[in-house]
Automatic annotation (TrEMBL):
It comes from Paenibacillus mellifer. NCBIfam families: PduO_Nterm. Pfam families: Cob_adeno_trans (PF01923). It comes from the Bacteria. This is Corrinoid adenosyltransferase. Residues 3-166 form the Cobalamin adenosyltransferase-like domain. InterPro entries: CblAdoTrfase-like, CblAdoTrfase-like_sf, PduO-typ.
Length: 188
């Protein structure tokens, strides 16, 4: 079997239940999720198994769930019985965020993406996740979508922020504060 089909040579691609243009909002949404998945894979590969075994395991699980997000968005028409992304996935992300936030130092100012290579790529994941979320919002204006995908992506970008800060913290590297930032976050 060949990996090329030539079926997309005229600018269309297959979705579950039909074909759409490659620049369709549906393809843009799940394509950006696919891009995010690649960056998550890069972050997982940078996660030292000794220091970041929990993070690595989470990232590998997130990759599976991002595939589920793309799948939920790849249907021409979808019934709820086929949805893979559920509120339980969102709740798991929230639990991971809460655990990292307990470990992270207090945050008072805006921070810049960076620090360790792992933290930097997790910040890339955060920004690509936000773009994917915007794409799903756009898609939702023209077709019915699984609303849990939108919630999942929204929470996932917060997860990447908390995980990036935690990657720096565990490596004993300070977050890079935005120098013109006043105190914008209160201590808990």
């Amino acid at each position: 079997m060949s990996i090329y089909t030539r079926s997309g040579d005229q600018g269309q691609t297959s979705v579950i239940g039909g074909r759409v243009n490659k620049d369709d909002a549906q393809v843009e949404a799940y394509g950006t999720i696919d891009e995010l998945n690649s960056f998550v894979g890069q972050a997982a590969s940078l996660s030292d198994e000794e220091t970041f075994s929990d993070l690595r395991e989470q990232l590998l699980q997130i990759q599976q769930e991002l595939f589920d997000c793309g799948s939920d968005l790849a249907y021409v028409k979808l019934s709820e019985s086929r949805y893979k992304v559920t509120s339980e996935l969102v709740e798991q992300i929230e639990a991971w965020i809460d655990r990292y936030e307990l470990e992270n130092p207090p945050l008072e100012k805006f921070i810049l993406p960076g620090g360790t290579p792992l933290a930097a790529i997790l910040h890339v994941c955060r920004t690509v996740c936000r773009r994917a979320e915007r794409g799903v919002v756009t898609l939702g204006k023209s077709k019915e979508i699984n609303a849990e995908v939108l919630k999942y992506l929204n929470r996932l970008s917060d997860y990447f922020f908390a995980a990036a800060r935690n990657a720096n913290h565990r490596a004993q590297v300070a977050d890079i504060e935005y120098v013109r930032s006043g105190k914008v976050f209160g201590n808990k």
